[in-house]
Specification:
Length: 133
């Protein structure tokens, strides 16, 4: 009886691995380059702390954006991306909007996030730039 259960579990695990391998191959063939470790961490942090206001694509259209005046920054704007340095973005995240002379609605995350996490978020923000049309 135990041997049958072990064999059945093994087959289920193999089937799951096969499905995951197919998903990875499909993602690779779709042209989606895998994110580096730092980018994945930055994306995870962004999704947890920033996406609610700034939106999934960084366009400032998150779930809470319509409640905010002024609306959240559009990080996907190529002109904005060129204008701001990584240090300026990190400073705004660390000190919040009021700390850098912008909207007081952007909270300071310097006591919540480590410097490494802030740098990872900045790295991820750089991937949100939309392509010029």
């Amino acid at each position: 009886m135990n041997r049958t259960l072990i064999v059945a579990l093994g087959l289920v695990l193999l089937a799951g691995c096969s499905k995951k391998t197919k998903e990875v191959k499909l993602a690779a063939t779709a042209g989606a380059a895998p994110l580096s470790y730092e980018l994945r961490l930055g994306k995870d942090t962004y999704q947890h702390y920033c996406m609610l206001c700034h939106g999934e694509s960084g366009a400032g259209d998150g779930f809470n954006a319509f409640n905010l005046d002024p609306h959240p920054r559009d990080y996907s704007d190529p002109a904005f991306q060129k204008k701001k340095t990584d240090a300026e973005l990190a400073d705004a995240i660390r000190r919040g909007g009021a700390g850098v002379g912008l909207s007081p609605l952007m909270p300071p995350w310097g006591h919540t996030l480590t410097d490494a996490q802030i740098n990872q978020v900045v790295l991820y923000l750089r991937t949100l730039e939309r392509k010029p049309e």
